[in-house]
Amino acid sequence: MNPTQRNLDVFDTIIHEVPDFLNDDVYPLMRKMERIKTFKNWPYDTSNSKCSSFLLAKSGFTMKSNKNLSTTAECVSCRKVLKFKTGDDGNARHLQMSPYCVLAKASAQPRETNQLEFISAMLQRQNVAAVKQLFKENKELTYKFKKAYDNLNINRK
């Protein structure tokens, strides 16, 4: 098998093991221009703002909501949700709150995101989802254990 075919096989495996690669709601948001489109009536779209919709999209963010003029955005890679205010440096806050985020680190570079970063961002998104699911399951098990333990103590009295 030649190296090109081997790389294509690896890529094909990754695509089928990471559901978001096939998710039409998520996959397009890995592109900066699609993320920019999510920012509707963003209040910090001024010429000197360091948290403009363009810079936040470059850093991996999509607009989370605009209820009550909310200024909240979520990174499509690390899933970090941040609320921004006037004067914030969006990418600096992103790196501070999520220093290992693939898209935040790529945004600090004077170039576009490359294919490896794109794939890494998708994998990071998948890993974050898996960890959140584990924490949720752990919390549920802890609750069930505590309830059973409390019932056991009540029955002993």
Tell me what the structure shows.
The chain has 157 residues and is mostly helical. It has a single domain (3-156), classed as Inhibitor Of Apoptosis Protein (2mihbC-IAP-1), Chain A (Orthogonal Bundle), CATH 1.10.1170.10. Helix content is 52%, strand content 8%. The chain has six helices and three strands. It has helices at residues 3-17, 32-36, 53-58, 90-97, 102-107, 115-156; strands spanning 61-65, 72-75, 81-83. It has a three-stranded antiparallel β-sheet. The radius of gyration is 20 Å and the shape is flat. The mean pLDDT is 81.
Question: Which helices and strands occur, and which strands form pairs?
Answer:
Blueprint: H1 3-17, H2 32-36, H3 53-58, E1 61-65, E2 72-75, E3 81-83, H4 90-97, H5 102-107, H6 115-156
Antiparallel strand pairs: 1-2, 2-3
The tally of domains stands at 1
**Unreliable stretches:** none
Largest sheet, strands/sense/barrel: 3 strands, antiparallel
E-strand count: 3
CATH topology: Inhibitor Of Apoptosis Protein (2mihbC-IAP-1), Chain A
Put the structure in a nutshell.
The chain is mainly α and 157 residues long.
Keywords:
mainly alpha, 157 residues, 3 strands, Inhibitor Of Apoptosis Protein (2mihbC-IAP-1), Chain A, 3-stranded antiparallel sheet
